[in-house]
Amino acid sequence: MHGWWREVAGLVLPVACGGCGRPRTALCAQCGQALYGAAARRVRPWPEPPGLPVVHAAAPYEDAVRAVLLGHKERGALGLAGALGGALAGAVRAAVTGMPTGAAGPLLLVPVPSARSAVRARGHDPARRIALAAAGQLRRAGVPARVLAVLRQRRAVSDQADLSARERAANLAGALEVVAGGGLLLEGGRAVLVDDLMTTGASLAEAARALSATQERLNSASGRLNAAVVAAPSLSFVINRN
Question: Hey, which family's this protein in (predicted)?
Answer without folding.
Answer: Belongs to the ComF/GntX family.
